Structure of histidine kinase:
Amino acid sequence: MNEQLEYIGNKIKQGSHFLAQKLSNILTVEIDPSLFIPFEDQPIDWLELYFQSIGDSLCSGEIAERNILLCADIFGRRAVDSEIPPDKSMDLFVHSRTVILDFLLIEIDGIKLSTKTILLATKTINQLIDKASSAFISHYQKSLSIAKYALAESSEDLKITLKELNDLKNALNETTIFAITDKNDNITYANDKFCDITKYTKEEIIGQNHNVLFSGYHPEEFFEKVRETIRQGKVWKGEIMNKAKDGTTYWVDSTLIPFSDRNGETYQHISIQNDITEQKFTEELLQKTEKLSLVGELAAGIAHEIRNPLTTIKGFVQLLSQALENGDLPYSSIILGEIDRINFIVSEFMVFAKPHTIYYNKCNVSEILYSVISLLGAEASLKNVRITNRFLSENPYIFGEKNQLKQVFLNMLKNAIEALPDGGNIQISLSSEEQDIQVLIADDGIGMSLDQIQKLGEPFYTTKETGTGLGLMVSYKIIQNHKGSIHVKSNVDGGTTFTIVFPMLAEKDHAENIQ
């Protein structure tokens, strides 16, 4: 059990009486206070038990969840019996979140808790409150079902029922992203929050099939299972990534509730959703941070083992050069230069373990690119790859570290060559635009999908069978440190273009940096 999570749970349990009293004070402004006191047939203080069980759920599990549902059941029956409008009753679950969060902000102030624990606690509490609200709503559904058969007998009853339905609709509209879909998955109703997140107007979205929101993140099998669950008359719950009209994606925590006719056939379903995009982004950020931490540990462990054999190789190359009569060992300068570059790359890899000072100078980007093309020219020829270049910039200078930039372009060009298993063309261009230097490395190789592009630069993610996923990660870090940016365009079997942009170095800027 997570000790920090258990600590938060115990704090909520200890403050359950205070939380119950505070929530009761908020709700009794518009709801009869007698609903929150124990009855003879229900002697328990259910509101206090409700908060105790939320705290217990962070410590234990199933028993606490059953108690929460029991409390929702008690409140649901009392609310329905007292004919309280559902939008007023739903305030209990809306204010529950606020009361707990306000309480925790005070109680854990100054306590060192990990971001991951706080997110997990918030997510768990939200899920429990959502389950309790769903259980609570079921009482109104039962009540409305009974009222359905009485409509024919009393026009007055019809007015009351329509008001309750309208109140429930208003409650859902105010608190959730809400939509109604027919049996063919066509949208028949959408509230304002649904339109806000999808960027569609009501006129545009009504009548559209739900697949207009598909982002491509989930496979077709995922949605087929969702549809099958709905067809069986079962409630489906889960997280979905959708795509808005403007192409942006967002995450929603969804509950899909089917409606069946007398024959048991599903004729429509409603979707109750909450926007969790920020939460998902934070979770991904935490995962990347953990991976980078692991890279740092690996770097610290292997750097020493790599440098030792490099020192030995360098020493013997120098000895072989001295042993020759003319002291000129063929390619010795290239070998020694590449050994020094490997040693430098290992040092850069250590940035993720222990950042260190890098000295930047005036760098000629075209010279670095020519050097990289020369180094990989032989490998490209062996693989039937043709490299062409087009350098238009008259002032191809930036402020940077030459070896780091060389490492970036080597990674990019090597990846482009490997993306052409059957040979092909690579175009390297250099140009200047206003105050920027722009380098394009384009190939006509196998390309990448949108999902692959989004994962580029993540630790250990690679599209190659023998890749480590570290080359691009280091390259992205170097470009970021040079105040540059990188953009990728690609299509499967349609080639890939990497665009790297650096701020141009003016002569006066170079003089200021030297001073």
In short: The chain has four domains: 3-150, 176-280, 281-352, 361-503. The longest strand covers residues 249-260. The chain has a mean pLDDT of 79.
